[in-house]
Amino acid sequence: MGLGDLRRTYDGTPLEEATLDPDPLVQLARWVAEAHAALDGPTEVNAMALATADAGGRPAVRMVLLKDLDARGLTFFTNLGSRKAVELAANPQAALCLHWAPLYRQVRVVGPCAQVPREESAAYFATRPAGSRRSAWASRQSAPAPDRAALEDAMAEVARRYPDDDAIPLPDHWGGYRVVPDEVELWQGRPDRMHDRVRYRRGPDGWVRERLQP
Ligand SMILES: Cc1cc2nc3c(=O)[nH]c(=O)nc-3n(C[C@H](O)[C@H](O)[C@H](O)COP(=O)(O)O)c2cc1C
């Protein structure tokens, strides 16, 4: 079957303004919780696409994991020398997209993005499995690698340097970023492609909400 023939009906629960929280971050937290409750198995409900652009405006997008969500914004963790980090240093704006296919839901977020305080990254780093903490040391994320063996060697070297699982420090080159939304759009798929879209924008007096055409 060709891609053009793939067609599904999106039959989600209607998005009604009256039931939406006036604060989009509260509403987003509600949707994440609903996705978490409804979708088990291999679906990563906290996976999101992160778009950045370099100083010249050339965009790049990749998946990251949403690791914290509160009134301050959406937090992910990464290598501070990676391509995304270099782009965020040049152009500290990001866009995020979360998608829960079985719920026919999408959320788009746009806003400035800055590193979280070091203590916050350290607190999260400490919760990661030892292997992930060691690979944060071993990998110069986004730089070319000669081959897989070089990466395995780097991992083995880190294991020699930090043999104790409880004593792997936070690398200087690793930490979190928080996207502070000034625009959030909730999308709910509906039959006949007449989808529900509600966009929140941060105004001088708080969030302003409007329905968009599908
Ligand atoms: C589901 C999923 C989750 C991911 N989560 C993260 C993450 O939280 N942090 C991260 O640095 N990379 C994560 N990655 C890898 C990134 O997509 C990407 O390959 C990496 O961060 C390098 O991107 P960059 O070269 O544009 O900086 C994830 C990939 C997938 C498929």
TrEMBL record:
Keywords, comma-separated and alphabetical: Flavoprotein, FMN, Oxidoreductase, Pyridoxine biosynthesis
The organism of origin for this protein: Patulibacter brassicae
Protein name: Pyridoxine/pyridoxamine 5'-phosphate oxidase
Gene name of this polypeptide: pdxH
Cofactor note: Binds 1 FMN per subunit.
Signal peptide span: none
Pyridoxine 5'-phosphate oxidase dimerisation C-terminal domain mapped to chain residues: 174-214
Enzyme kind, highest EC tier: oxidoreductase
GO molecular function: pyridoxamine phosphate oxidase activity
Taxonomic lineage: Bacteria, Bacillati, Actinomycetota, Thermoleophilia, Solirubrobacterales
Function: Catalyzes the oxidation of either pyridoxine 5'-phosphate (PNP) or pyridoxamine 5'-phosphate (PMP) into pyridoxal 5'-phosphate (PLP).
Annotated InterPro entries: Pyridox_Oxase, Pyridox_Oxase_N, Pyridoxamine_oxidase_dimer_C, Split_barrel_FMN-bd
